[in-house]
Design goal:
Radius of gyration: 18 Å
Number of domains: 1
Number of strands: 10
CATH superfamily: NADP-dependent oxidoreductase domain
Helix content: 40-55%
CATH topology: TIM Barrel
Number of helices: 10
CATH architecture: Alpha-Beta Barrel
Shape: globular
Largest sheet: 8 strands, parallel
Strand content: 15-25%
Order of helices and strands: EEEHEHEHEHEHEHEHHEHH
CATH class: Alpha Beta
Length: 267
């Protein structure tokens, strides 16, 4: 496993398992499969309404809690200092843990600074190990860090082969915030297996097109949280860390960048 060192010196796995539409007993089994495959970072959110099954799967796995990095996010229902405090306690209960490794503000809400104060309190009380934001454009991030006090450890954003957001990553790096990608496989918006360059490189490196797309990000020090219901694909995604893409091929892959969001998230 590769790790990224956060600005408070905590190590975060560079690859984790996303759970954005994972639900119910079937979803619980999927998360447990991911843990059995070797994932040690699980990404959830209050908005996903599945923190409970994440907690259940971790308990069932019998893996020591200290070996698993849990990320969750507070949404607009936690739009004040006191609501965010209560939301953190609710997440702790649902996750069946006395701490959360990383808590993010899910979007750049107008009340984000109030919510962040509750995250800072959780950090002080050791209920949270690291705090950050999600879906903050450079403009929102630049304004936020003027007043937030503690620089976010992570900004989780859309990032993939067609929209890696390297300029945003460079800006975040200046202040010590690491970028983490949601939708690193384009959330199925594109069929990566039909992309000619990815097909060519998959043949060259004896792997799948998805593995090339994931390795492109991690080799550029962007953390990723791909999701899959297939054990085979889970294993392949983890195995994307087992090889390096040559410099010339990285340059070719850079030509796939459209500089446009697939989801209009930042318009």
């Amino acid at each position: 496993m590769e790790y990224i060192s956060l600005n408070n010196f905590i190590n975060m796995p560079i690859i984790g398992f996303g759970t954005w539409d994972v639900r119910g007993k079937f979803g619980e089994r999927i998360i447990l499969n991911a843990l059995e495959c070797g994932y040690r970072l699980i990404d959830t959110a209050q908005m996903y309404k599945n923190e409970d099954i994440v907690g259940n799967a971790i308990v069932q796995s019998s893996i020591d809690r200290s070996e698993i990095f849990i990320i969750t996010k507070l949404d607009l229902n936690s739009n004040s200092y006191h609501k965010a405090q209560a939301a953190i306690e609710s997440s702790l209960n649902r996750l069946q843990s006395n701490y959360i490794d990383l808590v993010l503000i899910h979007e750049p809400y107008s009340q984000a600074l109030q919510m962040y104060e509750a995250l800072k309190d959780g950090l002080l009380k050791q209920k949270i190990r690291a705090i950050g934001v999600s879906n903050f454009s450079q403009q929102f991030y630049a304004k936020f860090i003027q007043y937030c006090g503690i620089i976010p450890a992570v900004n989780q954003v859309e990032s993939h082969i067609y929209y890696p957001q390297f300029k945003l990553q460079e800006y975040l790096d200046k202040y010590g915030t690491k970028m983490q990608s949601w939708g690193p496989l384009t959330s199925k918006t594109y069929n990566l297996s039909t992309e000619p360059l990815l097909k060519h490189l998959a043949h060259k490196y004896a792997c799948s097109e998805a593995m090339i797309a994931l390795r492109y990000l991690t080799q550029n020090k962007i953390a990723i949280i791909p999701k899959s219901t297939s054990i085979e694909h889970m294993q392949q995604n983890l195995a994307s860390l087992d090889f390096d893409i040559e410099d010339n091929d990285l340059k070719l892959l850079a030509n796939l960048n459209t500089n446009k969001s697939l989801f209009n998230w930042y318009d």
